[in-house]
Design goal:
pa0076 fold; eight-stranded antiparallel β-sheet; 9 helices
């Protein structure tokens, strides 16, 4: 479902959905084929949600990355529950698309490379703005992921060697193999193994890379509160996937 018009060296940033800085839907930044495809995905998926999900008080938030038909271009984004100035709920998406050298070979290191960008998105999306102009100014300050793969690899090796993860190998291998057969996996991240959520996300990326060389089409990391999930898609995203992410409390391992 995702496409590109042409390759650009610079990153493009855009926002779509609802935010308290406006009384209705907002579209901020540089729209292109990539962002428009994701925005349509939200619209189609949100229409498929039941009224009880739309009216809930919980806040879901998902970090994600996704590939495009252009090998050198990657998508990095944030998708979260939000509302307009009147309080009407609707998701908010912040998305960046641009070049990230060698990411297809280093996709297992993306949690480290993208951490700064995701943190900046989360802060920007949570701030109070007087109007959309202030949000646009904040969007202009976004920093793309850093392809510092050697540093990321060192961090990955340290995490892998220091983590009490031996009992995770069969579990992750089973799900990685299932991905090749089912084209998707959605699993809860269990903190009882002695790891933080961020460490578990990194470990899953590292160990999945051992069982599959090809980068997935999209990876979502998040959920609500202590209910955190990893969703990996080896196919194009569809409206059903949005519905499943937004009702992830019903997801079973």
């Amino acid at each position: 479902m995702l496409g590109l018009g042409k390759s650009h060296k610079s990153w493009k940033w855009s926002v779509y959905g609802k935010h308290p800085c406006a009384r209705d839907y907002v579209t901020i930044g540089e729209e292109d084929v990539v962002s428009q495809a994701f925005f349509r995905w939200i619209e189609a998926g949100y229409e498929g949600l039941g009224p009880e999900v739309k009216k809930r008080n919980t806040v879901y938030s998902w970090r994600f990355w996704a590939k495009t038909p252009k090998d050198e271009i990657i998508i990095v984004g944030l998708l979260k529950d939000s509302c307009d100035a009147i309080g009407r709920p609707y998701p908010l998406m912040m998305i960046g698309a641009g070049t990230l050298s060698d990411w297809q070979k280093q996709w297992h290191l993306l949690p480290w490379a993208c951490e700064g960008t995701w943190m900046q998105m989360e802060k920007a999306s949570s701030r109070r703005y007087a109007d959309t102009t202030q949000f646009k100014e904040e969007l202009a300050l976004m920093r793309p992921p850093k392809p510092e793969w050697e540093s990321c690899q060192r961090q990955a090796e340290m995490l892998a060697s220091d983590s009490p993860k031996n009992d995770m190998f069969p579990h992750i291998k089973q799900n990685a193999e299932a991905l090749s057969l089912q084209s998707e996996i959605i699993v809860p991240l269990d903190q009882q193994r002695g790891e933080s959520i961020s460490s578990l996300i990194c470990l899953w990326h590292i160990l999945m890379r051992n069982y599959t060389n090809t980068a997935p089409n999209a990876v979502f990391m998040g959920g609500e509160g202590e209910q955190v999930f990893l969703a990996v898609f080896a196919r194009a995203l569809g409206p059903r996937d949005f519905v499943e992410l937004w009702a992830s409390s019903k997801i079973k391992e």
